[in-house]
């Protein structure tokens, strides 16, 4: 395996911001593999040189979605891309959430407002308030929660996004998210580890793109219900058998049952520094992926 080359894919803007990146590259190299970080938007990196390209911190893709999806398709034609290009395309737009709900997965209730479609303040009226976000977004960018009675403000937020040609996601705010979001990480088809983090949308009624995306991270031992819900989400996703990694973000609804907030299959932080076995699992999964590619 010493001649195998692995690209750990990042972006020019985010390579220095990814805490998982150096951990993964060093661990792969320690395992005898030729791994290097490569920006997806670098000039002519020659993806055909690599036996495997593992997408990691391509965090600017939401601002350049068409370009990024074209890169994924082109790269998948010359090397093994994980996760696959079809998964990347499907997961890049939060329209996947209603799809999962339609397949019986417990998901936070999600309405998509398309540009040009009718809506009114009543669409933003909920007893606990609502969350408004773009259908293509990451890290809570251009996202806000609105308290009850602030439907007009939520509607203005939606109008701003729609005027930019962006579809809008509207969800009820789940008060129990203040007890912490759960992020369950799956690697190589099996559960690896989990963390709990504090709520992100702590200040209501404002868009704050400088929020910390993962406040107060601690190791979490998921409940059986959380594992079942996360497993159902993965099983209902596109191409579940081809996932090298996945992160399922959960919160508790009013009945204290876990519901899916996000299914992260493109470039999630895997919190490898918070659970050493996660890094070992990922190196093992990458090695298995390479063996599968050569078989």
Your description of this structure?
- The protein is of the alpha+beta class and 295 residues long.
- It is built from seven helices and 13 strands.
- Helix 1 packs across helix 7 and helix 2 runs antiparallel to helix 3.
- It is globular, with a radius of gyration of 19 Å.
- The chain starts with a strand and ends with a helix.
- The mean pLDDT is 95.
Short account of what is shown:
Helices cover 27% and strands 23% of the residues.
Class inferred from helices and paired strands = alpha+beta
Shape: globular
Biggest sheet strand order reads 11-10-9-12-13
Strand content: 15-25%
Amino- and carboxy-terminal Cα gap: 13 Å
Poorly predicted runs: none
Task: Quote the average pLDDT.
Answer: 95
Order of helices and strands: EHEEHEHHEEEHEEEEHEEH
In quaternary terms, these chains amount to single chain
Largest sheet: 5 strands, antiparallel
State the helix count.
7
What percent of residues adopt helix (DSSP H or I)? 25-40%
CA-based gyration radius: 19 Å
**Total DSSP E strands:** 13
Q: Can you tag this structure with a few keywords?
A:
single chain; 4-stranded parallel β-sheet; alpha+beta
